[in-house]
Predict the structure.
Amino acid sequence: MKLLKQLSVHIENVPGRLYEVTKWLGNAGINLRALNLVDKGDFGLLRLLVTDIVKTRRVMMENQLPAFVENVVAIEVEDKPGKLAELLKSLYEANIGVVYMYAFTGLPNKAVMIFHFSDNEGALQVLEESGIMVFDSESFGIIDSYQ
């Protein structure tokens, strides 16, 4: 399956809280694949792609931080001006909206973009028909026993 499992956690927006969370994960042997932290006032919404979903969720719950699992799509995009707009056009034409996204670079001339779409399954179909590289859990290095 090409839908990745992402964990979302609300953490207090105080000094040291992100450090604590990442320390727990590191101590548990969990590697981060991608993360996004969004300010929500007194709290932040931390979205995580990690090497072991089940273990991460257990670590969070043990530390009184409920972690919610949701599906996202990770794709490879050429790191050139206009390529994201080109990709989004086909989704727009299929009436599929982007609920949120985040990205990182690190591959030569490529960016990896993580999306949560209004219709993840429909987006996968459009992306694959367009020849876009969509990562699955294995290629992204994620152990996901929820599959």
